[in-house]
Amino acid sequence: HVIMDVQGWFREQWGLVCERFPSARASGQLDRLEKMFRVLGGDLTPEAFTPAPLQAPYSFFLPGLHATPFHDDVAKNAPWARALEENFPVILEELTQVMQRADTTFEEYIGDGLQEDKGPMTDCRGDWRVLYFYHNFVRQDKTCDACPRTAALLDTLPSMLHGMVCFSAIDPGTHIVPHYGPSNMRLTAHLGLLNCKNVEVTVGAQTRCYEDGKIIVFDDSFRHEVWHKGDKRRVTLMLDVWHPDLTQVETEAFGMVMANSHGTIDTDEFYHSLHIYSEKKKKQNDADRHTISAATSRKDGSGGDDDDFPNDSALRKRMLLNFLFSLKDK
User: Fold this and answer.
1) Residue 59, Cα to own-chain centre: how many angstroms?
2) Which of 3, 91, 130, 260 shows the smallest number of beta carbons within 10 Å?
3) CB neighbour list of residue 247: distance below 8 Å, 6 or more residues apart
4) Which residues have C-beta within 8 Å of that of residue 87, sequence separation ≥ 6?
5) Which residues have CB under 8 Å from 153's CB, separation 6+?
6) What single DSSP character describes residue 306?
7) Is the pTM of this model over 0.90?
8) Residue 51 has what DSSP assignment?
9) For residue 200, which of 216, 182, 213 has the smallest C-alpha distance?
10) CB 173 within 8 A of CB 126
11) Secondary structure of residue 47 in the 3-state scheme
């Protein structure tokens, strides 16, 4: 498989962003996006970021966004959320019709990247399957044609990423294991459609129940999991929306980069490269944590001498910060 030079590619993309949006760059409107790209490009170390406890996006972290597990204000007040709830009967009707068709296939949800990146999303109990309207930013014509009113509604929602939209179905007894989404730049929304009673989602340290006809919105860059404690198959409409703190120029700039990725490399290969990059960062953090632990042990008299502890202040700061950040996920 092709493994991208992830850092080099992101440095190149940041140059293209600066060429495309010179006024926004000069006025500081892209400052936090620049910080994210400098980390992705290897010019800044990951301690430039300060995620919230239990928040660990594996690809893209934009500093300065309001970080909270659930976004109840968005679910209550966003026009797109109101439009989805108002059209609940229409969406439910089309779901019921498509589920009765012999040629409808809900596929197992397995995440992004190559097969080696994709662990099971459920434990030995239950099953999680999806029917896509959009998958990896590609419109799924078969589903959209089978549910034309739902598809037409989705195309009117301005906050939509159109990266991933699907009917999401889980069977009774299903436990979707704890996992993290790729980015804090998006939020995940669910419109409850069918048999949502006794289905719970835990995001960070907060737990909510799904409800038929109601929207819930959460930040899936926080650790999250789902328990189906009911006795019938639960179905929601699941979609990604931009984080409300993002500006228009930020979404346009990042959208341009993602479009460039689709034209450069297969989507699964791209996300695989990000997984590899994320693993490298994790291994470096683990190594730093081991080094600071050993050095601290020497400093308290358990062995070695002071010269064994790094004298470079930046390195010492990086090791300390990485160690402290690692504790947030414990």
Assistant:
1) 8
2) 3
3) 29
4) 149, 150, 153
5) 83, 84, 87, 90, 91
6) G
7) no
8) P
9) 216
10) yes
11) helix
